[in-house]
Amino acid sequence: MRPNSKTTQEPVFNKETISELYNRKRGEAASALAKLFDGHVPKLGTLNGWVFEQTIQYCLRKELESLGVRAELREQLSLVGRAKADLGVGNLAIEIKSKGLFSKDDAERYSRFKEAAEKKGLQYLFFTASESYPKYRLDIVAALGDKNVFFLDTPGDWGRFVARIAAELTRTR
User: Residue 27 maps to which CATH number?
Assistant: First the structure.
């Protein structure tokens, strides 16, 4: 089935609305955790990444609903060994990062994840809020291909991300 014309409509969310939602939910998560431990506000560290993943999942779900595209979103999709993609949607394995790459070796690691995903018949996508280091930005695009990498801080990339997922979902039905 071909993507319907709705898959090209303007996205429901954008960088600003996603960032606002993420920041609000991050604060709510910290407050909720503080209640568990007598008001001690935790340092969020890895929780930030989880809240960002949940925010992107929520926004993606709403975008797909607005397009009339049904999808089952699966968390922590196994790729190989202990390696997992943050999200599975249809035949897509999606890595979601709140802050891009952390080392020069990360692009190579994600390239290996892409190979593992492809061996399972999956396409591998990488989505990040931003990548401030230009070399890492180039490295991840070179490792995964420009059609597979999306930066929330790049104008139009959220819409491109949603459109790519919607197109894949409607193509595989």
Answer: 3.40.1350
